[in-house]
Amino acid sequence: MRLQIAMDAVLGYRAIEIVETIHDVIDIVEIGTPLILREGLSTVSAIKNKYPALTVLADTKIVDGGELECRDACEAGADIITFLALANLATARAVIDTAHRYSKKAMADLICVQDIKGRSIELKELGVDYICVHTAVDIQTLGRTPLEDLKQLVTAVPSSFTAAAGGINMENLASFTELNPEIIIAGSSLMNSENIRNAVIEMQHAIKK
């Protein structure tokens, strides 16, 4: 299992500062959708240029224009590019094929998908690299996490294809690690901690022990 930190509610310069403190203890750095909407892909490029060995994910959530949008993210330096699993399969195929042409990886975000098993099987057949169950922030306020969705996902595709995001923290982490997803994604539970580096190390220990 690998740990991914999601950086959404920060400015680019702050994201770069944070990465300076955790680049040696984190597996994947996610430049979140809100940050990309505010500042484009410049933070992706800045981090990848400074830490070329670090895996950087651009949470572009592509839903149309798959080839063009994915190409821009690849050329900015992203190693993993996300698209919405709700998108037309033609868009999904364009993102996956473009990412692979650049020797990058594509992740499908299952947010709002009802038929998790069916859609995941279709996406795996297209060649997607990762499939992520994702409970939206607005839904998390209702007390939901992606745990039940992850239970469905791991019955549809091998765990090496799976990722989970949305309200994961130290209190509920064990429930997720029992299902052995390839990627555990944590956002606010890490970003809002007093010492982000220590929080990352603590979660890493829990994931990898």
Radius of gyration: 16 Å
Largest sheet: 8 strands, parallel, barrel
The first-to-last residue Cα distance is 10 Å
Q: Tell me roughly what share of residues is in helical segments.
A: 40-55%
Unreliable stretches: none
Going by CATH, the architecture would be Alpha-Beta Barrel
Number of strands: 8
Mean pLDDT: 95
CATH superfamily: Aldolase class I
Number of domains: 1
Number of continuous helical runs = 11
Q: Numbering strands along the chain, what is their spatial order in the largest sheet?
A: 1-2-3-4-5-6-7-8
Which tags fit this structure?
209 residues; globular; TIM Barrel; 47% helix; 11 helices; eight-stranded parallel β-barrel; alpha/beta
